[in-house]
Amino acid sequence: MDECFHENDYHVSRRIYSNRVFDQVHERQAQEVQSLREQLSSACGCTDKWAVQKIKGLLPILDWLPKYPVKQWLPGDVVSGVTTGLVCCLQGVAYALLASVAPVYGLYSAFFPILTYFVLGTSRHISVGPFPVTCLMVGSVVLTLAPDEHFLRPANITAVNETVTDERLMEADVEAREAQRIMVACTMTMLVGLFQVAMGLMQVGFLVRYLSDPLVGGFTTAAAFHVFISQIKTILSVPIHNHNGCFAFAYTIIDVSKNINQTNIADLIAGLLTIFIVMAVKEINTKFQHKIPVPIPIEVIVTVIASAVSHVMDLNSQFGASIVHSLPRGFAPPQIPNIALIGKILGSSFSTAVVGYAVAVSVAKVYAAKHDYTVDGNQELIAFGVSNIFGGCFSSFVASTALSRTAVQESTGGKSQVAGIISALMVMIVILALGPFLQPLQKSVLAGIVIANLKGMFMQISEVPVLWRQNRIDCLIWIATCLASIVLGLDVGLLAGLVFEMGTVVVRTQFPSCATLGNVPNTDIYQNMKDYKNIDEIPGIKIFKCNSPIYFANIDYFKEKLKEEVGFDAVRVFKKRNKALKKIHKLIKKGKLQATENGLVPVASLGVENQAFETEQVSELDEGASQSDSEVKVQVDWTSELPVSVSVPTVNIHSLVLDFSAVSFLDVVAAKSLKLVVKEFIRIGVSVYIAGGDGQMVRRMEALSFFDEEVTRDILFLSVHDAILFIQLETSTGNDEDPLAEKISQLQDDKEPLPEDEDLIETYDIQHLAIYGLSN
């Protein structure tokens, strides 16, 4: 053992602190407890400063716009706004395909939400608008409630001089279908907004923290897979049925495979070229981002070229290519939601609200950390909620943010939401003037743009091996959420992933890691004995640590691990010792054992083989027996062989220290059960001490009536080392007593029989039943 001193060594000299002694030496601060009326009064109290702060919190634009540095930020915001606005237009039109509505509504969704977020949002950099995942979730609901089959009508056949209706041929009423679909999308968008506003007003933005990074990663990867599958039919331009729910992707693939021979070559070539070119240029933008002042707006370039080629070559007429067709100028009139649909879309709307907010706030916090400012999660809920309500009134679908679009806004010099409002002006110009120029654009080009922008989400798969090496449980959450979302659908899959994630948390706390600690020689450091070699276990003392809160679900596991670490069952030891004492007491009454100052001695061992001395020995024995029983205290050595045939488990410790430094709380059931455990050890002569619990834990134990005359606050110590030093001091002064020795001595004095085993078992069982309130 190294006894040398090093320059980094230090020495601390202080007294041994139990919690009681520490509270006496260091006065505890009084805990201020407010009544309900006082709490309401302080919460509802209104001053001018408080009112201004609340107004600025609700309308952040009042805080940052007066401080806006025009000369420094405006040039960058203008360039960023123009560039981002062009990307917003094209992504809005493309993502409308995912929402299963006409392309013009994608432009509305890229315009209206930005207006309200400009006033209410707290992020300076995110670009508000359509996001592929939420668009697909909206689209699945739209296709469920407004499938093509609901809008079939007899086809009209034009003859030479008249139009004839043929009942055998059916065609879709496109106008009625589009009207119903946008009604479903708008109603769902407004309901999503109401959910988000309600959560923001209730200050429950923290609930999104339960959507961990592995869960969100698995979910968005599955969403990218669904988006990819949904766009295959547009790339190939083949007719398929609409499928939703479990295994919808499989049914879609089967339909595409059956109709693969109907593939439109012009659409296929345009789609594949779009995917290849967009992905290649995006790679160039990423690789040379420090050398290129502004990222190449490849989506805009491809769209302009594709529209021109389609118009010049008349691809729709010549090759049957599927094009946008109608992209009217101007805005649609506002409309109210269809209340009758709310019951059918309630669950999907809530999951979409959570997903949209979770993605947006995650992206916002990334850029907030990069540029050193804060984002208010609850205010973001209100901002996105109001944006969705406002957008839903003007034929928009759910708004969130897209990482690629936000990256464009930030990398092109955007400093604030002024860039966002300029991008909205660009979208407005397209809506009012330039929309018809996009009418010849092939839908497969839009689908190609969507698929090319999925690369980032698909690349998350590469994180799985790394996650497996870092934390296998988090990796399982990723995989389970991804598979569930692919197989069951996005809304049900998200719920299944969340349940699985919560299950892993419960399992990890229900089966916590427990360990026996040992002392690092010549220090006050105690570590897991399985982790280090030169760790000493203190003789006669067991130090047990549980690295988890202790509550109703894991208290039984805690007791099992404690029993395993100490090497015996305190209840069984107690029963066996009482059984042995009962037999010893009977032997003493029959005269086969004699209680002496040296312990229990069989009568035969006193030596009576010589008949000449038999009378003398018996008389001496009678004299010894006639002495007052109170003068002889019997000590039973439980570690040696007993004079009765009872196998008593060995107890090789005299003290047990429970390290509660990692225990954050106890509940009622755990407190009652733990108190019973402490008493079980005390009644077999093992002292129990609790170390490392903070002040809140102690107050919690007091509130749960953990302490009484037998289990007092004197068992609490500030640290494990304080408890160990106290135990060593107590044992060195010989203050430890054997309670069973006192019991047998008292039994000899009173000449009362020991309780039967059945009585002991009944008492023990009643104590355990009392924990759950089941005893009579």
UniProtKB/TrEMBL annotation:
Any one Gene Ontology molecular-function term assigned to this protein's record: secondary active sulfate transmembrane transporter activity
Species whose genome carries this gene: Carassius auratus (Goldfish)
Pfam families: STAS (PF01740), Sulfate_transp (PF00916)
PANTHER family per record: SULFATE TRANSPORTER (PTHR11814)
Membrane topology field: Multi-pass membrane protein
Database matches in InterPro entries: S04_transporter_CS (IPR018045), SLC26A/SulP_dom (IPR011547), SLC26A/SulP_fam (IPR001902), STAS_dom (IPR002645), STAS_dom_sf (IPR036513)
Name recorded for this polypeptide: Pendrin
Spans traversing the lipid bilayer: 128-146, 182-206, 265-281, 345-369, 381-404, 416-438, 444-468, 475-500
GO cellular component terms, semicolon-separated: membrane
Subcellular location: Membrane
Residues covered by the STAS domain: 531-727
Keywords carried by this UniProt record: Membrane, Transmembrane, Transmembrane helix
